[in-house]
């Protein structure tokens, strides 16, 4: 079709503009060509390996090639892992955290809570993740774990406190959770727990 030809020429002439690849991907999947859409997304990632927009696409709620989806995310993390310039580190951590959270949500929608939990387990081993990943993991457990949601969510928050207790937003989120579940003892403990000078993030 004409639109398809326009996008084909656009990604050739503007190869290093991830927005163009994303538009081509979105249109292609909207007309039902999901496999072709994923191929476009992969080609765009090859051309722009560290550009986050391509990873934030709705990749695939409708795709069933989950192995390929996991592979795309792992490639993206591999690219970011090679970028260790100290000046870029704050932005790198934001990209890492946002991408891990998107990955967790996708895994939950597509393959269920167990896969989401597995992805969070991988994320915890990543030295660049921020407090946002722990918050997302804890709240996902609280909303979706039908057996011991309160206990598991509390443990995740507490684990995150060991690394991110200097971030006021995370501390407040943790205390807000304890207030929600009416855990007065833990709330009192963490309220009195000595923490470094809080950083507003």
TrEMBL record:
It comes from Mycena metata. Gene3D superfamilies: 1.25.40.1040. GO terms for molecular function: mRNA binding. Residues 2-186 form the Suppressor of forked domain. It comes from the Eukaryota. Keywords: Cytoplasm, mRNA processing, Nucleus, Repeat. Its main location: nucleus. Component of the cleavage factor IA (CFIA) complex, which is involved in the endonucleolytic cleavage during polyadenylation-dependent pre-mRNA 3'-end formation. This is mRNA 3'-end-processing protein RNA14. One of its GO terms (biological process) is co-transcriptional mRNA 3'-end processing, cleavage and polyadenylation pathway. One of its GO terms (cellular component) is nucleus. It is found in: Nucleus; Cytoplasm.
């Amino acid at each position: 079709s004409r639109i398809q030809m326009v996008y084909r020429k656009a990604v050739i002439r503007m190869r290093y503009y991830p927005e163009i690849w994303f538009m081509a991907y979105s249109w292609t999947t909207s007309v039902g060509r999901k496999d072709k859409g994923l191929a476009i997304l992969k080609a765009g990632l090859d051309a722009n390996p560290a550009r986050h927009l391509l990873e934030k696409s709705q990749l695939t709620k409708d795709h069933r090639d989950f192995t390929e989806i996991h592979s795309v995310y792992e490639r993206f993390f591999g690219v970011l892992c090679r970028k260790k310039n100290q000046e870029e580190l704050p932005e790198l951590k934001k990209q890492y955290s946002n991408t891990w959270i998107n990955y967790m949500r996708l895994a939950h929608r597509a393959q269920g809570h167990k896969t989401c939990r597995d992805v969070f387990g991988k994320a915890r081993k990543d030295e660049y993740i921020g407090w946002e990943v722990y918050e997302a993991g804890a709240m996902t457990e609280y909303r979706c774990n039908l057996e011991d949601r309160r206990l598991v969510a509390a443990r995740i928050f507490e684990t995150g406190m060991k690394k991110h207790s200097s971030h006021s937003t995370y501390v407040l989120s943790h205390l807000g959770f304890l207030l929600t579940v009416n855990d007065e003892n833990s709330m009192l403990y963490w309220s009195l727990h000595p923490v470094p000078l809080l950083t507003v993030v």
